[in-house]
Amino acid sequence: MKSQIKRTFSNFFFEYETPRQVLVRNKRVAVVCRIIQMGVLAYIIGWVFMYEKGYQIVDIAISSIFTKMKGVSFTNISEKERIWDAADYVFPEQGDSSFVVMTNYIATVGQKQDKCPELPDGKNKCTSDAHCDEGKYKRMGNGHMTGRCINDTSTCEIYSWCPVEDDRKIPDPPVLLTAENYTLFIKNSITFRQFNVVRSNLVESVNQSYINTCLYHPKTDPLCPIFRLGDIVERSGFSFSEIARVGGAIGVLIDWDCNLDLSIRHCKPKYEFYGLYGTGKNEDKEEKPSLGYNFRYAKYYVENGVEKRTLMKVFGVRIDIIVHGRAGKFDIIPTLTAIGSGVGIFGVATVVCDMLLLYLVSKRDFYKNMKFKHTEIGEEKPALPQSKTERDLPKVTYH
């Protein structure tokens, strides 16, 4: 028993097993095998290593955005001249990554809290006081009903900010159509914590003198951080005159794709522009609901001891700046993982060729006999036990 255990351990530690291989001389199968292997090799080298850079460890950027709008517009509405600058047309004013540039508006001047009839827009009709429940508010209304139906307008009397805003007619052309000449300055910084790398879109070639004169263009000035608002809208697929009238939303993507195995100077941003809100008509050539982008804000003041306000319904271009940052650097662990997975994929060629040899070629039975070794173990018949009489009989030897 002791020698058997010793022999088992000895065989386990000091013997090596290798699978049996059969060399098959078949041109068609060999060509198929080599084509598959070359395809796998091209996938590993071309896609995994060169395109996807499977030999690198990857980190995602942390970013910050600072923006500043510049530009001046002049309007003359009802013989009232006015100058509009960034403090008037940018909301909010903190220079965030998401903001609105006003291009059109509807102003309701001199509103005060009082009783007045609803807007006769067909949404709040009434023919008697019974249609105006006192103290209640309709979803499409502008204030709380007093219980009276005003015959002159066929609408309910309400307690609200009066006079009620009339936004049925949007100014066309837009009031601030010259907004297309406004300029946007974007300052973006990113950090790759894993590699201790900090970059800004004001790269080495972007200095103060260059910023003072440049304007972004994808071919001539791809690194300039100053953008014309009209160009942003046009490159996102919209017409500025259309989007300025009812508003819309534009996405500015700053894409950082950095290979840190190269010099840090090659880590530069790329700018892309996308329309985020659809405008116009749908596939059935019907006008889409809730077209454009707008919001309201009010400027409050006191006149003769009465609180009043000027209500502004603002139509504008909403800019959302999105940063996508990715950096990669060589590391041994992902390299070995990519190589190991590639070696495993090479086994596909063996599986396919074995299927051809064992099931499709004309000499498949011959290949089966060469590949597989069949062993049959015969059953041993147990010997019958001898009886006592047979054991006592003398043994006879024949010569």
From TrEMBL:
GO terms for biological process: calcium ion transmembrane transport; response to ATP. InterPro entries: P2X1_purnocptor, P2X_extracellular_dom_sf, P2X_purnocptor, P2X_receptor, P2X_RECEPTOR_CS. GO terms for molecular function: ATP binding; extracellularly ATP-gated monoatomic cation channel activity; purinergic nucleotide receptor activity. It is found in: Cell membrane; Membrane. Pfam families: P2X_receptor. GO terms for cellular component: plasma membrane; postsynapse. The keyword Nucleotidyltransferase does not apply. PROSITE patterns: P2X_RECEPTOR. The chain crosses the membrane at residues 29-50, 339-361. Glycans are attached at N181. Keywords: ATP-binding, Cell membrane, Disulfide bond, Glycoprotein, Ion channel, Ion transport, Ligand-gated ion channel, Membrane, Nucleotide-binding, Receptor, Transmembrane, Transmembrane helix, Transport. Disulfide bonds join C116-C162, C126-C149, C132-C156, C214-C224, C258-C267. ATP binds at K68, M69, K70, T183, N294, F295, R296, K313. It is a multi-pass membrane protein. It catalyses: Ca(2+)(in) = Ca(2+)(out). Functional P2XRs are organized as homomeric and heteromeric trimers. Forms heterodimer with P2RX2. Forms heterodimer with P2RX4. Forms heterodimer with P2RX5. Receptor for ATP that acts as a ligand-gated ion channel. ATP-gated nonselective transmembrane cation channel permeable to potassium, sodium and with relatively high calcium permeability. Furthermore, CTP functions as a weak affinity agonist for P2RX1. NCBIfam families: P2X. Belongs to the P2X receptor family. This is P2X purinoceptor.
